[in-house]
Amino acid sequence: QVQLVESGGGLVQSGGSLRLSCAASGSSLDYFAVGWFRQAPGKEREVVSCISSSDGYTYYANSVKGRFTASKDNAKNTVYLQMNALKPEDTGVYYCAAVLYYGLVLTRERFKYWGQGTQVTVSS
């Protein structure tokens, strides 16, 4: 079992930055792909980013490419999502999710473990 806890959300003005953290317990993330998803009110949960297990490959949705950066600290068993140049359309609940897999995983249904989510609100 893997428990994931997100933190770092909040209210920020357009153009600002936030860093989300996803702390894992119960198992090392060394062999897990970790994804970041967001869900805006009335919309489907969508993938924002994914970081693969050991080789560190990353994926970013076109809407966040160049602004968001995912990283992993194996010593802290934590994955981060650095979000810069935030826009009002980035508003939503952000979730991290993990699945035991070597490469990138972009399909929501494939992730087995989910955090509780953290709210990000970007004001214009």
Q: Any overview of this molecule?
A:
The protein has 124 residues and is mostly beta strands. It has no helices and eleven strands. The strands form two sheets. Strands 2, 4, 5, 6, 9, 10 and 11 form a seven-stranded mixed beta sheet that branches. Strand 4 (32-39) and strand 5 form a beta hairpin. It starts with a strand and ends with a strand.
State the helicity in percent bands. Answer: under 10%
Radius of gyration equals 13 Å
Order of helices and strands: EEEEEEEEEEE
What's the tally of helices?
Answer: 0
Largest sheet: 7 strands, mixed
How do you describe this structure in short?
With 124 residues, the chain is mainly beta. It contains no helices and 11 strands.
Salient structural properties:
124 residues, 4-stranded antiparallel sheet, mainly beta, 11 strands
Sequence-ordered SSE layout with sheet pairings:
Elements (H helix, E strand, L loop, with lengths): L2 E5 L2 E4 L4 E8 L6 E8 L6 E6 L6 E3 L7 E6 L4 E6 L8 E9 L12 E2 L3 E6 L1
